[in-house]
Amino acid sequence: MSTHTTRTEIGQTLKACLTELTQGSAEAGLIQEDTNLFDIGIDSMNMTDLVLRIEERFGLTLAPEDLSADLFTRFSRLVDFVQGKLAHA
């Protein structure tokens, strides 16, 4: 079970994942609630890696039907998604 419970902690962890996946081109401090993840270098190839990191870091198992491209259009949507999954885990 994950210890990342607050929205801030979830956001910080997700920002770290995104920074790693983009090899530093997406600096955590520049990722805002309305940041489009596709605009910072997330594409279909590293979306899979992002999902795997989310599962690992938050102790979640995500079903394919839980995921949609719309989820990755705004950072806030991704944070909300993870927060909701953790609340029901």
UniProtKB/TrEMBL annotation:
PROSITE patterns: CARRIER (PS50075). Residues 8-86 form the Carrier domain. It comes from the Bacteria. InterPro entries: ACP-like_sf (IPR036736), PP-bd_ACP (IPR009081). This is Acyl carrier protein.
